[in-house]
Specification:
alpha+beta; 22% strand; rod-shaped
Length: 194
């Protein structure tokens, strides 16, 4: 018995067989492939870079807008007063505050007018006293003054103190204008670092 070998159909010449690519076709194909790869990687990467820069600028703009707005007239929330350890007297007048936060530190700037007795109570509740105030001492740093726009002129009667506490408790920089003895003005900056 003879085994039969299946017959294979041969396609006629020129059908189904591609001619070899020319050098020009190879260059065009590779160029198109490279452009597609660059677009698939470059567009998302470019979008991420632009988005990150816009986000960064947005944060800077918001900070500038907030500092331009300055102090907020009124009382800080109880939570803010507790966090920054600012026991503002109940009878304080012309009270205003401003809070700044970033990943390193948080600050609460407070300004109010009070009486000598309430000033004494305020300082005692913090953990210090009026005796700790040093005449002629302006303890609020230049950076904090510029943030709020506070100007401490030399013709006023200033006294101040810095009350440092063990971390994570805030550090309090307090400057008092005693130009009118029966109505001292308190300027305080509480700085908390996590």
């Amino acid at each position: 018995m003879t085994s039969a070998i299946p017959r294979q159909n041969h396609q006629p010449e020129g059908r189904g067989k591609r001619p070899p690519e020319t050098r020009r076709q190879v260059i065009v194909r590779r160029t198109i492939t490279a452009v597609i790869i660059v677009l698939l990687i470059g567009i998302p990467a470019g979008y991420l870079l632009i988005s990150a820069e816009q986000s960064r600028d947005s944060g800077r703009n918001k900070e500038r807008e907030a500092s331009a707005a300055g102090l907020t007239v009124g009382w800080p929330s109880q939570v803010q007063r507790r966090i920054y350890q600012l026991p503002i007297p109940l009878m304080a007048q012309n009270l205003a505050y401003y809070e700044t936060n970033n990943w390193k530190t948080s600050r609460m700037h407070v300004r109010f007018a009070t009486t000598p007795a309430d000033l004494d109570t305020f300082l005692k509740e913090i953990g210090t006293s009026t005796a700790a105030l040093k005449d002629g001492d302006i303890t609020i740093r230049e950076h904090d003054r510029q943030t709020i726009g506070w100007v401490f002129t030399s013709h006023r009667k200033w006294s101040g103190l810095t009350f440092e506490q063990k971390k994570p408790l805030p550090t309090l920089d307090i400057t008092v204008d005693r130009s009118v003895p029966e109505r001292p003005w308190v300027y305080a900056v509480s700085t908390a670092s996590p």
